[in-house]
Amino acid sequence: MNRFFVPNEVYEDRITICKSCVYYFKPTGTCKDCGCFMKIKARLAPMECSQKKWQKTTEIETPDDLPQEIIDEVIKVWDDLKTGRAKDIAAKKKMIEIYNTIHGTNYSTTTNCGSCISTCFDGIKKLYKKYA
């Protein structure tokens, strides 16, 4: 599991800034500038806002479990994956981004590699079964 999550206070500050930004796309929770899913990006210490509204930090915590918003994203994305195939490109991208966040990997969100996609899918499926 990724050991670079920010404390809840830092996450809440970041996500509040994102939600008030003109680049925040509320229907998907993504940034129209960088394309990232902000509930995920805002939780990671080494990440920073592409508009420089918040910076990366060395303030981290090592949780015993995943933060609730990451669990929520796993459960939400599973609806688009449960047939064994991503519903669309956005669902595939989100699956890979969540997997990368949790496991500290760097799979490309545009990959078509069956092995890479299968690894991400299996990882999300395992987490869904654990938390749903």
H-E string: HEEHHHH
What is the mean predicted local confidence, pLDDT? 89
- Which overall shape is indicated by the principal axes computed on the Cα atoms? globular
- The radius of gyration over CA amounts to 14 Å
What proportion of the residues is helical, as a percent range? Answer: 40-55%
| Main sheet: strands, sense, barrel | 2 strands, antiparallel
Termini separation comes to 18 Å
Query: Biggest sheet: strands side by side, in what order?
Result: 1-2
In the predicted model, the low-confidence regions spanning at least 5 consecutive residues are none
The secondary-structure class comes to: mainly alpha
What does this entry look like structurally?
It is built from five helices and two strands; from the N terminus they run αββαααα. The protein is mainly alpha-helical and about 130 residues long. The longest helix is centred in the last third of the chain and has 18 residues, at about 115-130. Strands 1-2 form a two-stranded antiparallel ribbon.
Short précis:
The chain is mainly alpha-helical and 132 residues long. It has 5 helices and 2 strands, in the order αββαααα. A two-stranded antiparallel ribbon has the order 1-2.
Set down the secondary structure blueprint:
Layout (H helix, E strand, L loop, with lengths): L7 H12 L4 E2 L4 E2 L6 H4 L26 H11 L10 H15 L10 H18 L1
Antiparallel strand pairs: 1-2
Helix pairs in contact: 3-4, 3-5, 4-5
